[in-house]
């Protein structure tokens, strides 16, 4: 009933709107307010939405005190209603420090969490900062790291935040640590050398050294790629590529066969950017792990030219349906955008391999013939050519037209 009246309060007919608002005014109380407000907020961007929202707000204020109304609506299960209630309460200075601390600890809506964190920083006490810096939400922690006064943020707490699980927070903490002339890279090395950190800590330290470290940290990255945790190995892959590009290919090639898809994929991307040749993908192609074959496909495809074509054809014939689909789409994309500009000489052995793969590609004959044409391969057998219809099979309209022409000629 309440929701139906709220819908009519947005109607384009003035008499209907007025009647609906009168009906809402008669039934409005704090208990049914969320149902009406939910509908009005959903239509607040319509032509008559702002006026309806103002009218419903006035009705709510007639139901009780602003603090009681806001307190009830802030516990609603509807996200838009909670957002409106918090904004309503904040605009009237009704939000207390306790309200905001409770919201920061329990709220799941990320936008509302960001609002509450911003508002809380204006009324928070020094003892609240530690709770904010370790909050569950990254938005709350990010707001805290940017607004906590220097006097309330010791160096050891700031350095600990440079190894936070969220990359954006780590970057913000490193920026603040540089302003204090703290050696963040040395702290990372110390934590890794201690060897007693969590998986998140070790991965964050290696990720930080990828930005702040150098060639001297090669040993730490080599230890990282043999770590039992996939997250740490993936971070070490990025660090090797950033700080030791010359040593990275030899160390990362075995990771194409890593038991973690995440590590194999990242190693393939790094090796592709390093210019590693397509020949190094053979072991990955021969693997029984679908993600290792995908890594080989990424590495070979990244070489460009005819290596890209061969990689896509190999993938199109793979037993993994996802990889096969990506390979087929890759060939079609090459035909549409790059085939005409692939001028790289095609070696005879690679032409033979492409020909074999092309014969086994389950694709329309027209696409296979197009690839064969660009590769200089003898065209595959074409589909039977359509022959002209026999005179007796011609459409009746053709015969009738000819009879009319013959009659006209006789005359």
Describe this structure in words.
This protein has 411 residues and is mainly α. Among the domains are: 1-95; 306-342 and 351-374, no CATH class. 67% of the residues lie in helices and 0% in strands. The chain is built from 25 helices and no strands. The protein has helices spanning 2-8, 14-27, 33-42, 49-63, 66-73, 79-91, 97-106, 110-123, 126-133, 138-147, 155-161, 167-179, 184-194, 199-212, 218-224, 230-243, 248-252, 261-273, 282-285, 290-301, 305-316, 321-337, 348-359, 365-375, 396-410. Helix 7 runs antiparallel to helix 8 (110-123), helix 11 packs antiparallel against helix 12 (167-179) and helix 21 (305-316) runs parallel beside helix 23. The longest helix has 17 residues, at 321-337. It is flat. It starts with a helix and ends with a helix. 34% of the residues are buried. The model is unreliable at 383-391 (pLDDT under 50).
**H/E series:** HHHHHHHHHHHHHHHHHHHHHHHHH
Mean pLDDT: 87
Structural class: mainly alpha
Rounded Rg: 34 Å
Task: Describe the global form.
Answer: flat
Counted beta strands: 0
Topology overview:
Blueprint: H1 2-8, H2 14-27, H3 33-42, H4 49-63, H5 66-73, H6 79-91, H7 97-106, H8 110-123, H9 126-133, H10 138-147, H11 155-161, H12 167-179, H13 184-194, H14 199-212, H15 218-224, H16 230-243, H17 248-252, H18 261-273, H19 282-285, H20 290-301, H21 305-316, H22 321-337, H23 348-359, H24 365-375, H25 396-410
């Amino acid at each position: 009933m309440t929701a139906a009246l709220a819908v009519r309060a947005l109607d384009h007919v003035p008499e209907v709107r007025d009647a609906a608002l009168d009906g809402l005014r008669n039934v409005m109380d704090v208990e049914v307010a969320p149902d009406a407000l939910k509908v009005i907020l959903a239509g607040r961007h319509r032509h008559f939405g702002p006026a309806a929202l103002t009218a419903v707000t006035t009705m709510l204020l007639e139901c009780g005190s602003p603090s009681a109304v806001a307190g009830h609506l802030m516990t609603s299960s509807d996200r838009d209603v909670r957002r409106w209630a918090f904004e309503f309460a904040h605009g009237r200075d009704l939000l207390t420090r306790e309200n905001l601390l409770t919201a920061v600890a329990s709220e799941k809506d990320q936008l509302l969490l960001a609002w509450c964190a911003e508002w809380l920083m204006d009324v928070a006490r020094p003892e609240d900062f530690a709770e904010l810096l370790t909050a569950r939400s990254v938005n709350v922690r990010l707001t805290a790291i940017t607004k906590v006064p220097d006097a309330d943020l010791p160096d050891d707490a700031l350095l600990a935040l440079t190894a936070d699980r969220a990359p954006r927070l780590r970057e913000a903490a490193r920026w603040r640590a540089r302003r204090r002339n703290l050696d963040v890279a040395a702290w990372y090395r110390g934590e890794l050398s201690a060897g007693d950190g969590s998986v998140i800590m070790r991965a964050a330290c290696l990720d930080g050294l990828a930005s702040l470290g150098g060639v001297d940290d090669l040993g730490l990255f080599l230890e990282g790629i043999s770590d039992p945790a996939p997250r740490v190995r993936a971070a070490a892959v990025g660090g090797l590529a950033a700080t030791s590009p010359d040593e990275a290919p030899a160390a990362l090639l075995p990771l194409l066969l890593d038991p973690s898809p995440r590590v194999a994929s990242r190693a393939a991307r790094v090796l592709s950017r390093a210019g590693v040749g397509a020949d190094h993908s053979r072991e990955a192609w021969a693997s029984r792990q679908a993600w290792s074959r995908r890594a080989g496909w990424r590495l070979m495809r990244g070489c460009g030219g005819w290596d890209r074509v061969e990689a896509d054809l190999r993938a199109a014939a793979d037993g993994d349906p996802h990889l096969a689909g990506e390979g087929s789409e890759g060939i079609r994309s090459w035909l549409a955008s790059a085939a005409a500009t692939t001028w790289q000489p095609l070696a005879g052995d690679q032409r033979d391999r492409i020909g074999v793969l092309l014969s086994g590609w389950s694709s329309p004959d027209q696409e296979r013939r197009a690839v064969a044409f660009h590769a200089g391969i003898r065209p595959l057998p074409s589909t039977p050519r359509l022959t002209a219809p026999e005179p007796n099979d011609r459409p009746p309209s053709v015969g009738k037209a000819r009879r009319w022409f013959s009659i006209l000629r006789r005359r």
